[in-house]
Automatic annotation (TrEMBL):
It comes from the Eukaryota. This is Calmodulin binding protein. It comes from Plasmodium fragile. SMART domains: IQ.
Length: 210
């Protein structure tokens, strides 16, 4: 009985084995394609994850490099500006020192201030003296010209009246000629007196202003 059972089991097992082999042969292609698909997806996942990791790492590295480059450039620019400011400061101070020294040297040895001041004072005094001399000469010339004009007028009057002796006054009767001559002489004397007084007043005003 046991042998029969074993034989029947063996036949069933062989049938199942053969069916499994047939199923395996049928599904081998599908299983291969499924395995390839799974491997493809898994490898793509690994590649994408690796790419993202490297991308993130490269981005951080790039940002760090940019930050370091910016810091370096800023330090360099700051140093360059400080050097420019120092050079400008030194140049400005050198210019000021040269200006002060040249001014001192010029005032001390080339253009002496006190000597120039004395020269200007002397020149001003000389100009004032020459001005006074010129004004005095002009006044003298004016007086001489006035005296000459008066003499010429008197000569003209004398020449015009020398043949009019019949109009001269006598002890008994006052003449017409003498009366007119006296009036003319009086008027001339008053004019001369008035003009001299006006000139004296002008001189006094000018002296007060000075």
């Amino acid at each position: 009985m046991e042998f029969v059972k074993l034989a029947t089991q063996d036949s069933t097992l062989s049938k199942e084995y053969k069916s499994l082999i047939r199923d395996k042969e049928k599904n081998a292609g599908r299983e291969r394609l499924a395995a390839i698909t799974i491997q493809k997806c898994y490898r793509g996942y690994l590649t994408r994850r690796t790419y993202l990791v490297y991308k993130h790492f490269l981005k951080r590295a790039k940002d760090g490099i940019n930050i370091l480059a910016c810091k370096f450039l800023l330090r360099k620019l700051k140093q360059h500006r400080l050097e420019q400011q120092a050079a400008l400061y030194m140049s400005d101070n050198a210019t000021k020192i040269q200006k002060v020294f040249r001014g001192y040297y010029s005032r001390k040895y080339i253009h002496d201030f006190f000597m120039r001041k004395r020269e200007i004072i002397e020149l001003d005094a000389h100009v004032k003296a020459q001005k006074g001399i010129m004004l005095q000469g002009i006044e003298e010339k004016r007086k001489k010209q006035l005296l000459h004009d008066n003499n010429v007028k008197d000569m003209k009057i004398h020449n015009a009246a020398k043949n009019l002796h019949h109009l001269v006054s006598t002890k008994a009767q006052r003449g017409v000629y003498n009366y007119r001559i006296e009036n003319i002489i009086r008027e001339q004397q008053e004019k001369i007196k008035n003009s001299s007084e006006k000139k004296k007043e002008k001189k006094n005003i000018l002296n007060k202003k000075k």
